[in-house]
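Long-time lurker, first post. I've been practising inverse folding by hand and with some scripts of my own, and I keep getting stuck on stretches where the structure tokens seem ambiguous. Below is the full token string for one chain I'm working on. Before anyone asks, I'm not after the true native sequence, just a reasonable design that respects the backbone. If someone could post their per-position residues I'd love to compare against what I wrote down in my notebook.
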């Protein structure tokens, strides 16, 4: 019972912590957009969206298709997140940025990223990306030692070992699990059914859930890590709203496009590795 309560508390802390980045969802700098062109799927929408071809994420599938039957509810949560961002998260992030120097914030980001290495390691292995899993493991060893517990990133700077970000949502997509309907979650921000399941699975893979019993320490860690992340990406959400006729639609399209592209790239990467391996065996 103690372990169950501990895990449940961890999940809740992660969800609360993501409040600091839910409204400004951004990965690898892919947040800025100028327009949001959305094609409404009429008529046979359900048949198309639930078909295998739609979830293959190949070039023949329009990246503008989406399934959002909960849009009225999603828009309510989007407005809630919007107010949360402007009334709480943004002021806290600005105050944090004014006190903590940029170099220290980058070091904190490196530490948080290094500590979540098991998530990337497991998901690279689940996608048969063995070489990338080796890179993740090597990065963790180098950054945890030479990089002083992960506050530095000599693995990238000195050894040219770039990060290999993967999560369980991408793993599910890699194995053909459809994304399901679009969700705008309160506090968490944009997601879909597949990525929501993946988020929960990744939370259980994080080492904090197994090695930290102090709930206040965990709360502090996740609060600081998310505020720190938001402070390093201060204008993402504002830019999206500035260049969008409908910020909700823009957020939805940016999120779905990005996730589909990540899964497509993963499949292409594994396919290329398999083809290279076959050629070498000849």
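-- Answer (accepted) --
I ran through it position by position. Result:
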């Amino acid at each position: 019972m103690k372990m169950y309560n501990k895990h449940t508390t961890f999940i809740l802390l992660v969800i609360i912590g993501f409040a600091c980045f839910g409204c400004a969802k951004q990965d690898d700098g892919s947040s800025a957009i100028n327009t949001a062109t959305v094609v409404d799927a009429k008529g046979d929408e359900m048949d198309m969206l639930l078909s295998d071809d739609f979830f293959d994420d190949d070039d023949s599938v329009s990246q503008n298709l989406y399934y959002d039957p909960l849009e009225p509810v999603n828009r309510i949560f989007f407005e809630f997140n919007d107010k949360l961002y402007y009334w709480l998260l943004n002021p806290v992030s600005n105050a944090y940025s004014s006190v903590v120097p940029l170099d220290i914030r980058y070091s904190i980001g490196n530490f948080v990223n290094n500590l979540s290495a098991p998530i990337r390691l497991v998901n690279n292995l689940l996608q048969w990306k063995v070489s990338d899993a080796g890179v993740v493991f090597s990065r963790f060893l180098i950054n945890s030692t030479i990089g002083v517990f992960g506050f530095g990133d000599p693995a990238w700077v000195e050894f040219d070992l770039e990060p290999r970000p993967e999560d369980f949502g991408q793993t599910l997509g890699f194995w053909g699990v459809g994304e399901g309907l679009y969700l705008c979650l309160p506090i968490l921000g944009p997601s879909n059914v597949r990525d929501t399941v993946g988020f929960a699975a990744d939370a259980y893979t994080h080492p904090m859930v197994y090695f930290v019993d102090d709930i206040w320490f965990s709360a502090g860690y996740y609060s600081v890590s998310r505020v720190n992340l938001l402070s390093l990406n201060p204008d993402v959400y504002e830019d999206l709203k500035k260049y969008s006729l409908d910020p909700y639609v823009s957020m939805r399209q940016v999120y779905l496009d990005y996730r589909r592209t990540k899964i497509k790239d993963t499949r292409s990467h594994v396919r290329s590795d398999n083809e290279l391996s076959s050629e070498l065996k000849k």
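A couple of notes from the structure itself: The beta strands are 182-185, 189-192. The radius of gyration is 20 Å. Happy to go over any region you disagree with.
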